[in-house]
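debug: dumping io for the single-chain case to check the tokenizer round-trip. Nothing else runs in this session.
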Amino acid sequence: MAREHLTSHGKFLCRRAKVHHFAGEAALAQAKLDQAILIANEVSAPAGSAFRILINKTRNILNAAVAPAGYTPSATGVVNNRVAITSHYTASTNDYYIGATPTASLGIELPAASSLSIGQSFLIKDESGNANSYNITINPSGSDTIDGENNLILKGPHIAVNLHTDGVSKFFIY
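debug: decoded output
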């Protein structure tokens, strides 16, 4: 699947694309890219953050979100902020990847969804394969929920979960 990746940093717009065009599709691809650029130009983002748009092979916008300050585009791909944990951890608004190596059951406290940008994501992974013995419990802040639940418990070896937020009070598994 070909995807186009568009990132806006302040006034500068960087385009990195791996696109395969078939006859007659070039105009459609350009129209979707123009739409993405228009969206990017209308977004106001906090200092240090970036705007990310993913477009699928049929040129539909899959994801358009402000990424946190930990999001850094590079010449070889996207580099996101990573933190390694071995015990209880309170996630930061700048975290993206949380790699857990539990030696005892541990909890991860998420920031309030309202403190995050719409679509902001966390990827949480049991890097050691110990979550079947030492569960990882993910707790949203206050009355926030994860797919309508008060918490999420990771119980399998090498298990991972991707969460994104509505920026108000909910996290969703995807």
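debug: round-trip ok. Residues 3-69 form one domain.
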